[in-house]
Amino acid sequence: MSEHIVKIIPKDPFCKVSEPTLQSVKTFLETRIHCDFIEVEFNEAPVFVDCGTNLETISCPQCGAKLDFDWWGNVMDEVADNSFTSLEAETPCCKKQISLNDLNYDFPCGFACCLICIYNPEQIVDDKIIDAVQNILGICIHIVEAHL
After folding, report:
1. pTM surpassing 0.85?
2. Whole-number Å distance between alpha carbons of 16 and 146
3. How far apart are CA 128 and CA 16, in angstroms?
4. Do 144 and 10 contact (CB within 8 A), yes or no?
5. Is the predicted pLDDT of residue 6 greater than 90, yes or no?
């Protein structure tokens, strides 16, 4: 049986939300969403927050060209070697400097220092819940839906 995980991350990959604030969001979500469980994760540097088996393509945000997974993997290795202190890379298509966080991932992915994972929610995490989470966090968020 596959797992469906809704991952909530800050839009800014370097944003660090305090543990008490993330715990407040977790408590709020536990009262609003029926699911298996909710986890909170903290990291010193951004980590890649993937969509699992949903990832089909990656494209350039500047020119729209489809990017090769081998190119992306090599760039990911390079930024990992630098502990993700910078997410900048030059695209092979239009030679523009971009953040790996700004690539067009289909399905959405991103980078984050902190995240909240909702495992197997029984309902859609709708705009009302997303707005409430943004208000508690005081930042804009991004949703990554993963299937494993």
Report:
1. yes
2. 22
3. 23
4. no
5. yes
